[in-house]
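PROTEIN DATA CARD
Card holder: DUF4878 domain-containing protein
Chain length: 165
Origin: Brachybacterium huguangmaarense
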Amino acid sequence: MTAYPPPSVPGPQPPRPAMPVARPWYRRAWVWITAGACLVLLLLAAAAAAVGLFIALSSTPEKTVRHYQTAWDTSDCELYVDATRERFRDGVTCADFEEAASEIPTEHEYELISSETEGDRATVVSRTTVETSTSTFTETTEFHLVKRDRDWLIDSAGIVDSTVG
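Structure generated from the sequence above:
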């Protein structure tokens, strides 16, 4: 530290350090505006991702019926159990399901005919077409579903029409 003579001593005084000059507010504002805009964009992106994830993961009656049909196609008991209520399965074991699923012809198509939802209940109508070398078999099935928590589960199903041509 520099020692200065007391002010009572005549002579030149050393220069005093200059005080920093404050910048005007508008020269600092761009930093805050940019940071705020980035934060808003980040929050919007996170909200859009959350909504997209929710929609992708949420169950619909149509998806549940498609999972049920896929379970039969692939003999996937876990998928079968995930798509149906226990009372619908009525004591069917995985071994029973896999044996029955293995007997289904591999050349067939599913077509969604209609879907109606009313509260926690839904009805989905699907048509299955099986083509063999000698004929075509068509079966229309009506699925009744109930919503449990956030998942749709098949509660009952019945054949409403079948044709052989």
